[in-house]
Design goal:
It is a single chain. α1 runs parallel beside α4 (88-179) and α3 (42-82) packs across α4 (88-179). The protein has one domain (2-81, 88-174). It has 4 helices and no strands. With 180 residues, the protein is an all-alpha fold. Residues 148-180 are annotated as: Disordered.
Amino acid sequence: MTLYYSIVFALLLLEMAMFMVLIVPLPFSARRKLFRFLATSQIVAKINYCVRITFIFVAVLFIDAFQRMMKIKAESAVTETHQGFQDFRTETNYHAKKFYAQRNVYLTGFTLFLSLILARTHSLVLDLINAQEELAANTDAGSTDMATMKKQMQQQQDEYNRLSDELAKAQSAVSDKKSD
C-alpha cells in the first residue's frame, strides 16, 4: 500500500475511534464538558480545518481510484474479447491490479462516507446536549411554576368551597322561607 493510502487508512481508523467516542454512553455532565471543549478549543478547530483539507485530497484519491478501477475493467474487456488471457501470469497480474484498485476505491469511499456520518452524528449529539440543557433549565423553572400553580389551585379550591357553602346557605334559607 502506498504512503497516501496508508494515511487514508490511518484516517479511517481515527474516524472509527472518534465515532466510538461519540456514541459511548457517558454521563450528561461529562458529555457536555467534552463537547463544549471540542466546540471551543482553538487546537481542535485547527485540527478540524486540517482534516477538512485532507478530505479534499481523499475525495481526489477516491475519484482517481475509481477511474483506475474502470480503466482496468475496460482493459480486461478488450483483452478478453480479442485474445483472452495469454497465460497464468497475465491473468494473475490482472486480478492483482483489479484487487488493488477495488481496495483503494473501498478504502477512500468508506473514509469519505464515515466522515459524513461522523459530522452528522456530532451535530445530532450537540443538538441532544442543547435539548437536554433546555429541558433541565425548563424543569428548574418549571418547579417554581409548579409551586405557583399549586398555590393558585389551592386558593381557587378554597374560594370554590366558600362560594358553594354560601350557595348552600342561601338555598336552605330560600327553602326555609318557602316552607313557612
